[in-house]
Amino acid sequence: MNVSGEGGSLAGMSGGTPAHSVSKAGLNALTRLPAGELRADGVLVDAVCPGWVATDMGGAGGRPVA
């Protein structure tokens, strides 16, 4: 299980945080490729996109971290 985000969506990229967006797009690819390879063996490879979460880096605007 990987933790990705909306910033990794190619359709949603519009600038602002290029390093974050490129790293999340890479993580999405790194999730999809083994998912396709391992599906026949019954192995699930997936990613979640939790949305904005309040962190030191992101600020207090999101959901609190549990």
UniProtKB/TrEMBL annotation:
GO cellular component: cytoplasm
Entry's transmembrane regions: none
GO molecular function annotations of the record: oxidoreductase activity
InterPro entries: Fungal_SecMetab_SDRs, NAD(P)-bd_dom_sf, SDR_fam
Protein name, per record: Uncharacterized protein
